[in-house]
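hiii so um. not sure if this is the right channel but i have a protein structure encoded as tokens and i wanna go backwards to a sequence. like what aa goes where. can anyone help
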């Protein structure tokens, strides 16, 4: 093996090496590709997943620089340079890597500086189909198309006969006895329920979003008030806000709907799970270096606004996770399964991104949104 390859993690500060598991073993076990590049972008380390990803062994990689495998105009070099210059971690979703060796693939890349080794950059690469956030977005886009058509059909074909049914039941109400009136009321209530469902579906139509500067804290406050005066009255709501956040570039009402759906789900999960000290935490923050490729162009959209909704409920049921954002996926007896499909649709319309982390006792949905004047920047 070449001497230029680093065989493990650089020693963390202030710890006895013997108290840690072997860094190389840890890195090898990771399912994501981890690479260490030196100042000349030569490979100094590649874990097992990275060897597989690049199709070369560590020994072979030691003879190469990244520029030998990827064309010089690849956006990955820009990302690496920015990490070096700014000394911060940068994540890019949907970056296209194209080369004869790698073919064309879409990856999520995270580049980080290594404080102990100036000019070295750690790259973490994940195939886009394995990167959950992106995967969900893609899954959603196809789901949205089918829902868009269905919403239009429902609106036209269901609403009219429904109001006929409802009107007829109302007419009957005045001429039947008390026992039968219960039945006519049932018809009316159920007709109302279907109508509400159809109304909710209509947002899936292809209308362009009207956007303006939105104070995200006002959105969160509005939702918090609704929640505390209604469905989450019995729960504690925490706020961890970054007061210096710039305005989001979005549609206020739709963003209220997004946060409301997330907070409602959190409250319902806590209640259904019988959690004694139910707690929902709303967090905002500014994150440099989160960006998403704009489909069909060279541009990148910066998504520095972070809004997170966390709960200490039982976590998302394992069996629905792969289709979490699809319409009609629900684990609740009376759930329509439209909440998260709607969230994903609105976030996608805003050019943003949604991610989720869930385990028992801690579920977090994170929204990454664009800010005003920045929504379609290059870079
Ligand atoms: N915070 C959460 N904790 C645990 N499970 C969740 C959470 N958020 C969503 N889920 C799961 O995801 C499913 C889908 O959520 P979604 O909001 O799309 O539909 P729903 O809440 O079931 O129905 P609707 O929102 O239409 O009333 C839920 O049924 C639930 O199983
Ligand atoms: Mg819901």
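sure thing!! here u go:
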């Amino acid at each position: 093996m070449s001497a230029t390859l680093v065989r493990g993690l650089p020693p963390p500060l202030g710890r006895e090496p013997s108290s840690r598991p072997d860094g190389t073993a840890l890195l090898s076990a990771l399912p994501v590709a981890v690479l260490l590049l030196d100042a000349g972008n030569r490979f100094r380390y590649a874990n097992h997943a990275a060897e597989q990803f690049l199709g070369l062994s560590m020994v072979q990689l030691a003879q190469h620089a990244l520029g030998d495998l990827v064309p010089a105009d690849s956006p990955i070099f820009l990302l690496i340079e920015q990490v070096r210059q700014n000394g911060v971690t940068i994540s890019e979703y949907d970056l296209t890597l194209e080369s004869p060796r790698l073919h064309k693939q879409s990856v999520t890349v995270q580049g980080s500086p290594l404080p102990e080794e100036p000019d070295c950059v750690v790259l973490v690469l994940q195939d886009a189909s394995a990167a959950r956030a992106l995967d969900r977005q893609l899954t959603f886009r196809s789901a949205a198309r089918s829902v868009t058509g269905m919403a239009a059909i429902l609106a036209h074909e269901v609403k009219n006969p429904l109001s006929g049914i409802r009107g007829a039941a109302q007419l009957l109400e005045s001429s039947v006895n008390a026992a039968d009136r219960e039945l006519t009321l049932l018809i009316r209530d159920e007709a109302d329920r279907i109508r509400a469902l159809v109304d909710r579906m209509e947002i899936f139509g292809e209308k362009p979003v009207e956007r303006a500067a939105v104070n995200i804290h006002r959105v969160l406050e509005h939702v918090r008030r609704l929640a505390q005066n209604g469905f989450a009255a019995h729960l504690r709501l925490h706020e961890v806000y970054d007061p210096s956040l710039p305005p989001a570039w979005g549609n206020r009402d739709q963003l209220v709907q997004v946060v409301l759906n997330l907070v409602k789900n959190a409250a319902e999960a806590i209640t259904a799970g019988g959690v004694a000290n139910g707690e929902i935490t709303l967090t905002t923050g500014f994150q440099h270096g989160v960006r998403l490729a704009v489909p069909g162009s060279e541009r990148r959209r910066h998504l520095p606004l972070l809004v997170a909704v966390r709960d200490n409920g039982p976590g998302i049921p394992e069996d629905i996770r792969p289709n979490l954002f699809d319409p009609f996926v629900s684990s609740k007896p009376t759930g329509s399964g439209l909440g998260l499909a709607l969230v994903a649709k609105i976030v996608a319309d805003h050019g943003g991104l949604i991610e989720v982390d869930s385990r028992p006792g801690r579920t977090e949905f994170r929204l990454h949104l664009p800010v005003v004047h920045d929504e379609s920047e290059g870079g």
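oh and The domain at 212-369 is CATH 3.30.565.10 (Heat Shock Protein 90).
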